[in-house]
């Protein structure tokens, strides 16, 4: 533990004594993240005390080379690591092991051992970060400071997209911790790529697109009255939601009335009429008709008001592709709060995504409402015709037979 503290102090001293204002990505903050992830993964992988010690030690020096030479950072990381380990008289065989691990990870070679797997996964854990997009932007700015020619946004996002799709986590623990977040960031990068592609269209094509959009806008203004204010949006969704909730309440009340009424009818038939069956010939038929029609009416009314249980989870991919509704509780009540919070924040940042969720919420409420009234229609129809037929059959039995 004392050696690890020495290594930490050594690295922090290097950052403190060397100018690094242009290192927006490969700075001390990033190194701390790598060390933290390396420690966490190694512990979950049940590393021995010695392997854990070597893994954390290597993670401190993994990216220190960027401080001295951005292009030749691998050589500088190995040089700095070798200097420190030599000064503290670190065992030669262990020193060579750590140097080899750092070199393999930085050169993106396939890991030869478990320590290299952990170092690689820790160094790439940023792929699953909620701030991944921001870190990537820092990385591009940093790269353009030190490397010429500068890389365009389009090419840079394409490289990141390729990197994410080709990359894989090596340890089981890293896959459990980071794979889901990485997949979500892949979806975000796809959105950035599509935006960049639109921005980089040839100017002539953009002029044609703008002209077509202007013509479509003029046509739309003539054939429809557009809602242009925030108050208009608010009023539209508020009134629609209120009307649907009121109609749902009306449907539930109608179902309750029908259930109560038919329950009373069945009770009355069983209690008062059934005792007279032996005295009145053929009364079994109207009694049976009454009970059966009432049971069917109750059944459809109960189905109409029965809650529909949803899984309470959604895939982030479906959310960004506007295939799910984040507003309705049935789609998220079984989710992890961090995922839900991230999705809500992204939705509030994207107006199109927000309107898509609002529209889908109104649409799904309308479908539920339509199902309720359809079932109630069946229930009332059965009740009406069943009541008429039962009443006529009672009259036939009592007066004609």
Description:
- Helix 1 runs parallel beside helix 3, helix 12 runs antiparallel to helix 15 and helix 14 crosses helix 15.
- The chain has 2 domains: 198 residues, Hypothetical protein af1432 (Orthogonal Bundle), CATH 1.10.3210; 171 residues, no CATH class.
- It has 15 helices and no strands.
- It has 401 residues and is mostly helical.
- It is elongated.
- The mean pLDDT is 80.
Name its key features.
74% helix; Hypothetical protein af1432; 2 domains; 15 helices
Helix and strand topology:
Blueprint: H1 2-17, H2 28-44, H3 49-61, H4 73-87, H5 92-106, H6 114-123, H7 132-146, H8 153-166, H9 172-199, H10 203-223, H11 230-273, H12 284-305, H13 316-320, H14 337-349, H15 351-400
Q: What can be said about this structure in brief?
A:
It contains 15 helices and no strands. With 401 residues, the protein is mainly alpha-helical.
Which CATH class of the largest domain is shown?
Mainly Alpha
Write down the CATH topology of the largest domain: Hypothetical protein af1432
Question: How large is the share of residues in beta strands?
Answer: under 5%
Q: What is the domain total for the residues?
A: 2
By CATH, the architecture of the largest domain is named Orthogonal Bundle
Instruction: List segments where confidence is low: pLDDT < 50 over at least 5 consecutive residues.
Output: none
Gyration radius over CA: 35 Å
What is the CATH superfamily of the largest domain?
Answer: Hypothetical protein af1432
Termini separation (Å)?
102 Å
Structural class: mainly alpha
Largest sheet: none
Overall mean pLDDT stands at 80
Helix count equals 15
Gross geometry: elongated
**How many E-type strands?**
0
Helix and strand succession? HHHHHHHHHHHHHHH
Helix content: over 70%
């Amino acid at each position: 533990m004392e050696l690890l503290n020495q290594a930490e102090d050594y690295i922090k001293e290097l950052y403190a004594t060397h100018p690094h204002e242009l290192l927006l990505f490969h700075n001390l903050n990033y190194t701390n993240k790598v060390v933290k992830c390396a420690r966490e993964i190694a512990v979950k992988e049940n590393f021995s005390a010695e392997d854990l010690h070597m893994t954390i030690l290597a993670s401190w020096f993994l990216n220190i080379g960027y401080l001295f030479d951005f292009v030749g950072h691998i050589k500088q990381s190995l040089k700095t690591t070798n200097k420190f380990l030599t000064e503290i008289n670190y065992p030669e065989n262990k020193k060579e092991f750590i140097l080899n691990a750092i070199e393999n990870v930085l050169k993106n070679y396939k890991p030869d051992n478990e320590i290299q797997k952990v170092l690689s996964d820790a160094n790439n854990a940023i792929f699953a970060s909620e701030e991944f997009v921001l870190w990537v932007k820092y990385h591009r700015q940093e790269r353009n400071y030190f490397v010429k020619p500068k890389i365009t946004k389009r090419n840079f996002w394409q490289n990141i997209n390729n990197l994410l799709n080709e990359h894989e986590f090596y340890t089981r623990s890293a896959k459990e911790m980071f794979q889901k977040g990485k997949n979500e960031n892949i979806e975000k990068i796809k959105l950035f790529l599509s935006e960049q592609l639109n921005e980089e269209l040839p100017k002539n094509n953009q002029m044609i697109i703008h002209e077509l959009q202007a013509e479509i806008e003029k046509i739309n203004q003539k054939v429809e009255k557009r809602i242009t204010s925030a108050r208009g949006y608010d009023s539209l969704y508020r009134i629609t939601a209120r009307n649907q909730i009121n109609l749902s309440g009306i449907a539930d009340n109608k179902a309750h009335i029908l259930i109560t009424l038919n329950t009373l009818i069945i009770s009355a038939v069983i209690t008062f009429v059934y005792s007279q069956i032996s005295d009145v010939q053929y009364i079994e038929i109207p009694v049976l008709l009454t009970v059966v029609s009432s049971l069917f009416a109750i059944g459809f009314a109960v189905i109409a008001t029965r809650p529909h249980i949803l899984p309470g989870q959604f895939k982030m991919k479906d959310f960004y592709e506007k295939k799910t509704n984040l507003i309705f509780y049935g789609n998220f009540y079984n989710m992890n709060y961090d995922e839900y919070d991230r999705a809500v924040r992204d939705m509030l940042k994207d107006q199109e995504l927000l309107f898509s969720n609002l529209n889908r919420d109104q649409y799904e409420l309308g479908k539920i409402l339509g199902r309720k009234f359809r079932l109630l229609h069946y229930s009332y129809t059965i009740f009406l015709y069943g009541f008429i037929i039962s009443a006529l059959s009672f009259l036939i039995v009592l007066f004609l037979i």
